[in-house]
Amino acid sequence: MSYLTLEKVGKIFGSSSVVSDFDLAVERGEFVSVLGPSGCGKTTVLRMVAGFERPSFGSIRIGGEDVTVQPANRRRIGMVFQAYALFPNMNVRDNVAFGLKVAGMDRRAIAGRVEEMLSLISLGHLAERYPYQLSGGQQQRVALARALAPRPKLLLLDEPLSALDAKIRVSLREDIRRIQRELAITTLFVTHDQEEALSIADRVVVMHRGRADQIASPLEIYNRPATRFVAEFVGTLNLFDAEMAQPGVLRFAGLNVETPMALTCRADEKIVVGLRPETLSLERRTEDDLSVTGTMLSTSFLGAVIRAQIDVDGRVIRLDMLNRGAGRLPPIGETVELRFSKHDLLVLSN
Ligand code: ADP
Ligand code: MG
């Protein structure tokens, strides 16, 4: 049985349903990211797991035990929030020791555990500092150490990196993952940042309006999005309206493409075809390449990648090429052939 399971969990605030039919099974030691736009219910899910909110429906189990109505202080959960919730009047050492004192651990054991945690986050040299004397990234490290010190059963992180600068955000997320692996602690990590979710997690839950649209590995979320929402929220996507010209033949952008995808959809559903910018090319790559004609509009230099904006029938299509591989870019206004493989088509309905 999975270590953490949410079964048909729902939450109603007043008359609005904020989370519904939420199923999730997390294995012991797994790192799962909960990804979605602001307001989709991520924090509410986390608060229900922590015991700060009681589900209106469904059940939650941790380590085989039904905790649906168990109070937060009996769940042994470590939490880290976006705002550095350190105790401002305590130094780093005392912040990290806090949960251990509450648990009644003896002083020598506390001292040992605190040293261990400080070395884990590489802040042993700052043990005497107070929170106001630390950078945002250092404060979040301390918050992490404080959450982990009492050996919680679960680690829950709610947008822990969102307030930090881009560089610190990346290095701290790598540290969080390293520490999580070292301790093999089962972790739920909430974020609205798709790159963060894909890069850090074993599996990602993409939330949309209180529901889990897809739960899968980062690669699968990106390469095989289950819904149009997932496809558009994760990564960049070019979309074309499409229709089934006849069974097995998809028509879009003036093309008729035989598709192996058995797409069954209701008459009132619209089909769209998505293409990721990096699957498009201005050069012919294989005999079977499909192509549409467009006009170069502009280019943006993104560092590793150069992104071209190309007009195809009044629609702006984005194409990415590696900086090294770019060669000469067609000038603005030039007519170009956009080439792609039918295997890269994401056929989606809504
Ligand atoms: P997220 O973390 O994804 O941004 P939240 O879980 O914080 O989303 O909130 C989801 C929705 O639930 C929002 O519309 C929010 O306003 C509403 N909500 C959250 N907490 C409460 C509450 N205690 N009372 C009423 N509405 C709430
Ligand atoms: Mg939130």
Automatic annotation (TrEMBL):
List the SMART domains.
AAA (SM00382)
Q: Which Pfam families does the entry link to?
A: ABC_tran (PF00005), TOBE_2 (PF08402)
Which residues does the UniProt record annotate as the domain ABC transporter?
Answer: 4-234
Give the source's domain of life in one word. Answer: Bacteria
- Single GO MF descriptor: ATP binding
**Keywords recorded for this protein, A-Z:** ATP-binding, Nucleotide-binding, Transport
InterPro entries per record: AAA+_ATPase, ABC_SmlMolc_Importer, ABC_transporter-like_ATP-bd, ABC_transporter-like_CS, Mo/tungstate-bd_C_term_dom, P-loop_NTPase, Transp-assoc_OB_typ2
Q: Which family does it belong to?
A: Belongs to the ABC transporter superfamily.
Q: What is this protein called?
A: ABC transporter ATP-binding protein
Specify the species: Fulvimarina uroteuthidis
